[in-house]
Amino acid sequence: MGFPKNFLWGGATAANQYEGGWNLGGKGPSTSDHMTGGTVSTPRRFTHKIEEGTYYPSHEAVDFYHHHKEDIELMGEMGFRVFRMSINWARIYPNGYDETPNQEGIDFYHTVFKECHDNGIEPLVTISHYETPFGLTEKYNGWAGRETIECFLRYCKTIFTEYKNEVKYWLTFNEINIGMNPFGKTLGLGMMMEEGDWNFGATETKEEASERFTALHHQFVASAKAVKLGHEINPDFKIGCMIAGSMAYPYTCKPEDVKKAQDQMNMGNFFCGDVQVRGHYPYYARRYFADNGIQVRMEEGDEELLKNGTVDFYSFSYYMSSCASADPEVAKGKGNMMMGIQNPYLKASDWGWQIDPKGLRTYLNEVYGRYEIPLMVVENGLGANDVVEEDGSIHDSYRIDYLRSHIEAMKEAIEDGVEVMGYTMWGCVDLVSASTGEMKKRYGFIYVDRDNDGNGDMHRARKDSFHWYKKVIASDGEDLA
Fold this sequence. Notes:
15% strand; alpha/beta; 38% helix; two-stranded antiparallel sheet
């Protein structure tokens, strides 16, 4: 019982929040490069042109571009067995629609993967993680244009071929279900939005919702085609989906609240998983589309493509849970890009994210019971305002407590019979927050000297959690003290 000996312990990052070098080495701009900085109280802005004198966090992020050797060596020191990272599409194809790839970008990731293997680390690569090339946004309105599918497949063919002996584990789209929400249309689907504040409570017309779900459908088709292509290039590839996971509990035992929680689980978690794991749209999609006046533009043969391009494993992020109520007056709280009702039985982080390790065990059981394929927790962590002491030490016992409780819950799920293949804690090196664009909200085992305004010398430092996680990995999750 407990964690298997081949369990993939590690950490996770994303290029747009971590890599930097946004205009170096032949890289083109992505949608994330057009998002300004912000805070928990000041929303990020999306600009069509890069404004002189405006701070865009992704442009330098925490400069993995120049610090990759140092960072990966620190991961190796912790004993990482896997490092989840993303390839920045615009570093390989600067505009997204280019006919030939950027060799300098290809070479950069060869260097990164070599460094991983030199430190005994298996790369887990997210192919598209909130970084659609801005050229595709301008030319095709991102994934709303079906032409983007072939651009994505050209990109996949390049990286699958270049790195076929260096990368075994792949994820097609990060948190693909963000496209289920209006606020995800630019971040996840690469669609152009109006200049101005990023509005998490955005509303849209039926026509706009239809366009958004059509864009999501194009990602489903692209993912299915990529899975098939990847297996043709290297049959040993393991290619997964990635879902923003969240448990939804009924706020009360009223039958209306129970049904609301079921609907929230279906549309919030299972809709995208059903398409990518089962290979077809779920039964409840028809009613949802009809009730909301949504028409998804599909082409002949798409259903067959989805059927033949199902994923090998299911991965997800898990930060919190929420409650569901049919009563519109019940106060709502914010979560990981999702709206939800606060649970009175749970505590919350400084950013209002409710802490629910037991919900992770429940979620793992729910998902495995539905799909019965290997699962992987590829994001989980605590964003906090870390304090650097005068001697340079960082005592983050709160992060250790958070991670310990979630690892214990994951172990319980494994003992329940759930097949969990790995765990990559989010933001293993401090990075830029996707939702707020700030550095103050830190996740890492490794501190980076960088602030919300882009100041700092980028030096790295080990936090207390660094040494704790090293023990966890060495003991295969047995030593959590």
